[in-house]
Amino acid sequence: MAEKILIVDDEKSMQELIELRFRREIRKGEYEFRFAQNGMQALQILEEEPEIGILLCDINMPEMNGLLLLEKIKALHHLYKVIMVTAYGNMGNIRSAMNGGAFDFLTKPIDFSDLKLTVGKALKELHRQQEGEDALRQLPITELALEETDQKARQLEELDRMKSRFFTNISHEFRTPLTVIKGMIDQLQANPTKWLEKGSQMIKRNTHQLLDLVNQVLDLRKLEAGQLRPRLIQADIIFFLRYLLESFHSLAEMKEIELKFSASSPEIQMDYDPEKMLRIISNLLSNAIKFTPEGGRVSLLVREFESSQVESRNPRTHELTNYLTISVSDTGIGIPKENIPNIFDRFYQVDDSAIREGEGTGIGLSLTQELVRLLGGSIHVESEPGKGSTFHLQFPITKTAQLQENPTFTETIDNFVMPVGTANPSPQKLHSEENLPRLLIIEDSSDVVEYLISCLEEQYELLIARNGQEGIDMALEHIPDLIVSDVMMPQKDGFEVCQTLKLDDKTSHIPIVLLTAKADYESRITGLKRGADAYLAKPFEQEELLIRLQKLLELRQRLQARYSSGETPPPSDDPATRQEDEFIARLRQAVESHLDDSTFGTLELCQHIGLSRSQLYYKLKALTGRSIAIYIRFVRLQKAREMLNATSHTISEIAYLTGFNDPNYFSRVFSKEFGMAPGALRG
Ligand code: ADP
How far apart are the first and last CA of the chain? Predict the structure, then answer.
């Protein structure tokens, strides 16, 4: 193929000259020439004939001189080889041209053999560069690719980091159910009749938990690989959601959480993917229950909206559609504003402190969000710390999938939703007013902790501290009913824990069992002002531990009897009991000194005594079996009874004098407390 060369010169003779000098090459088909008499023409020809690679260009031309043209040509494509032609001696122009990217230069009058050589040289260079560029284009690593690779490497690194964190979390998540399963199998072998029912339930529950974890990991993997597709059926979604919520009842009941369901219509027929919807809603519900303290409420709200009410388009067809909103609300701990943007991130946990170590993997919400997106929906959260959270979901309503009259998802749901055990007590649970007594384990060896958990989790609600200091902190914060502590521990040993807690008003009443290795601990015990309530030598039998703990709880009940009459109890020989007597006396004193002040309530008493509400609540509950408000009322009523017996005030007067604003109410609670109306005492 002929090489195309463009000659740009305002001298018309130039064309003749070139055609004459190159006639042989032209005839042979080696070269083809194009001619332009000014810059504009040149640019036009270049545009029309992109095969042109070589230009011969005069510098001195009217309108657009050669230098300006060179600039424009170079801007068009960097491969053009431009040979500049100028008058001999015009070195300034030549330098400018060379600096502007000209390939070479010739002087007038043109020496044609030199021109031929120069053109040949330019062609060679052009071809060399063209081949280089072609090769570069085929090479996978261009500069851009390099940058992309770099970015990919960074992303992979980040993913790797997250994955390894995830694996740490998830192995922890695996260990606990496995320990329970293993421990229970031991128990079953040792005592089949006793453990058959309970043991197999626990094994089932924990196996289920493992299975669920595995499924979550698999789902995540499939999502990543883009293998998870919606599998829609058309059915009544209200029935599905109601059934799903129902299956959370036993889990909610364990925490005394009320579940509420509300829907804008009794039935909504639409396409949905039961399996994915199950996972989405279950994740949100179990989080809501997990992060809501006792006595709270979790609700599921379903609404259908017409497309006209809010602009809503089906993401697939872009048509206007009706849509479904599902809101999962709780009255729980809420999420701090600054954490909201992160909670849908994989592996993110708002509170990754030690207490909640091993609980949750932080993949629940990211999986939820990805599944919601897969189904063409959206999710967002509103939350206020201390008040609660609401997760809002929105899905387009379509009705194109196969109609299913009696969808058989109930079994799937039943298998999926299982109450989770207390093997990993959440901090929320710890604040609970549970029926089970709350026991704090202070132990640094996780194997022993796990053994203790398997021994105790059925009878007690458990709190775990990993060293002596953490144990003291948790005891002061949560005021448990019982403490089982190891002796040998880093930071603070069991004796120090005992000493500290027994000296503190908030925790002095809590029975402590020290787990000791058989070494000579007796010398140390004798040195203690107030030791533990029981000592148990390692290795101990489960039965032995359970009996000890039971006995200590019974002792506490005797203490409750001591304070329940409201009379000042007879002085005790036991210094421990005397300490509690003093505490109760202080409380009584505080209430009695504000007897006619009806505004003196829980908060005021806490302030007066210098304990937090929950500290006083648990301490008082342990000593008297009464809550703070009920205890205050009890002291008031007792004073009222004394006055009824000893003074001539009217019943109404006595009601006011003891802090009751409403004499009718006073009479009612008085009757309830003492089994007789106040009037009965007056005869
Ligand atoms: P995890 O397995 O840790 O529960 P998730 O992805 O399900 O992981 O949740 C991430 C974090 O978001 C949780 O650890 C928790 O801190 C916070 N969170 C999720 N749901 C709620 C809720 N209803 N109330 C308060 N915090 C929540």
Answer: 131
- Looking at per-residue confidence, does 227 or 22 come out higher? 22
In this structure, the residue with its CA closest to atom 7 of ligand 1 is 364
The finding on whether 516 has its CB within 6 A of some atom of ligand 1 is no
Instruction: Tell me if 280 CB under 6 Å of ligand 1.
Output: no
How far is ligand 1, taken at its centre, from the CA of residue 372, in Å? Answer: 17
Q: What pLDDT score was predicted for residue 281?
A: 94
DSSP string, 281-322: HHHHHHHHHHTS-TT-EEEEEEEEE-TTTS--B-TTT--B--
- Residue 610 CB neighbours (<10 A): 10
DSSP 443-482: -S-HHHHHHHHHHHTTTSEEEEESSHHHHHHHHHHH--SE
Instruction: Please tell me whether the peptide bond between 539 and the residue prior to it is cis, using omega within 30 degrees of 0.
Output: yes
350 CB under 6 A from ligand 1? yes
Q: Sign of the CA dihedral 155, 159, 160, 161?
A: positive
Q: With a 6 A CB cut-off, is 335 part of the ligand 1 pocket?
A: yes
Q: Residue 318's pLDDT band (boundaries 50, 70, 90)?
A: low
Alpha-carbon span 198 to 69, nearest angstrom: 93
Per the listing, tokens 């809503």 go with 312
- Cβ of 369 less than 6 Å from ligand 1: no
* pLDDT value at 126 more than 80: yes
Report field, pTM of the whole predicted structure over 0.85 = no
pLDDT for position 493: 82
389 and 259 in contact (C-beta within 8 Å)?
no
Give residue 165 CA to ligand 1 midpoint distance, Å: 17
Q: How many helical (H) and strand (E) elements, i.e. helices and strands, does the chain have?
A: 26, 17
Residue 142 has a pLDDT of 60
Q: Is the CB of 328 under 6 A from ligand 1?
A: no
